[in-house]
Description:
- By secondary structure, this protein is an alpha/beta fold.
- It contains 14 helices and 17 strands.
- A seven-stranded mixed sheet has the order 8-7-13-14-15-12-16. A five-stranded parallel sheet has the order 10-2-1-11-17, with helices on one face.
- The longest helix has 26 residues, at 132-157.
- The protein is globular, with a radius of gyration of 22 Å.
- The termini are far apart.
- Residues 86, 95, 148-149, 152-153, 156, 168-169, 171-172, 284, 286 line the site of uridine-5'-diphosphate.
Amino acid sequence: MKNDYCIVGAGLSGMVMAERLTVAGKSVVIVEKRGHLGGNCHDEPDANGVLHHVYGPHYFRTNLPHVRDYLSRFTDWLPAEYRIKAYAKGRLWSFPVNLVTFEQLLGRPSTSEEFGQWLEERRVKIDTPSNSEEVVLSQVGREFYELFFEGYTLKQWKRHSRELSPSVCGRIPMRLNRDERYFSDAFQAMPRQGYAAMFNRMLESCGKRATLLLNTDFTAVRNELSFDRLIYTGPVDAYFGHRFGPLPWRSLHFEPRSLRSEELADRREQAGKPGFWQSAVQVNYPNEHEYTRTVEIKHVTGQQTPHTNVVYEYPRDFEPGAEPYYPIPSEDSAKLYAKYAELAAKERNVLFLGRLATYTYLNMDQVVDAALREAERGVTGAGQGLLGELVPHRKQQRGYRER
Ligand code: FAD
Ligand code: UDP
């Protein structure tokens, strides 16, 4: 059967497009190589029934009301305040750097004024930081840079922060007050029943106009499928057979640990409450261990269970068998991506969308925003009927948002 659209990837980008297009009357075939919807947002219960994020923590937050409203059609929300800690020099620190962190450093109470003054003396005066090291040095000075950023960044990216675009460490806020939240966005919440439930409801909304092929690699079935237009959300270099060589990607290895209540008995002091392993949803390890962070998502899912789950996250090279989790924001990769972007722009009837296809370090809300815009342009497009023209390719998407 011929479909109006083929959508490669059932992540957030692909599913928003599928939902919008089918509601507008178009037929879609969704091709997903994994065995589930949701891409990297996927969550599932472990052996003890504890919901955990399989591909790293996904903290939903946004300043875009239309993105929140759109997703609210498919989920209720559980308000969340994401508070994380960094473990360094044998203790847990409040992170991102804020007045509480400063007080921990001093070992006594302080004020925003004193902290501001202290920073003024230590900040490296750089008007326009040209890399991630300069961003951090210009915001918090060398002491905090060395404590929290230098080692973590090397571990995570296998590159020095001098070789990474300012946007990488520039994602992390710093505050003179005692606001210890990781993000500053107006809306911060988790899907009440989890991400998988949200994606199932998106698929339900597609109805009969969507055909879903899970466990199917697009490259293997490309010639068997019949469609007018393609929406591609996989890696852009793979689409073109790595013609100019592979793009630099960074991968991860996730090691989930299921912990039964009996195993948590002696963790009460560290966790601060029964039924938990650690005292915050995320603990970062900038300078120790091979993993960068441990995530106990139960802190923010609100799940009532005596058991828990902690995921250890290890950075990994992008090698055969690894997933391309992060584009690497740097000058060399931008140059190579520009070559693929040029090819993509010439590809007729193909829309390259999302984090992998645009090689851009995008958060969930940015991905939804982009997909909604593309769908809207398609729906109202260029006087060629209901879904006349999808914009072939947007050369530049914002890679990050200033918080
Ligand atoms: P993806 O989710 O990657 O989906 C692409 C899909 O395409 C995948 O399911 C893949 O299997 C499929 N695919 C690829 N190639 C093929 C092929 N050839 N054939 C068939 N299928 C294919 N964002 C936040 O807002 N908050 C967070 O806290 C957050 N944490 C994150 C933590 C980690 C570790 C990572 C990696 C990302 C995080 N993000 C977070 C970003 C978020 O995951 C992305 O913004 C979002 O999931 C991107 O959606 P997408 O559909 O573009 O890509
Ligand atoms: N970072 C760091 N120390 C930390 C947390 C973050 O140096 O404790 C840097 C690091 O380079 C990281 C980047 O800031 O890759 C962005 O951090 P974020 O937590 O937003 O990463 P993500 O959740 O996207 O992996």
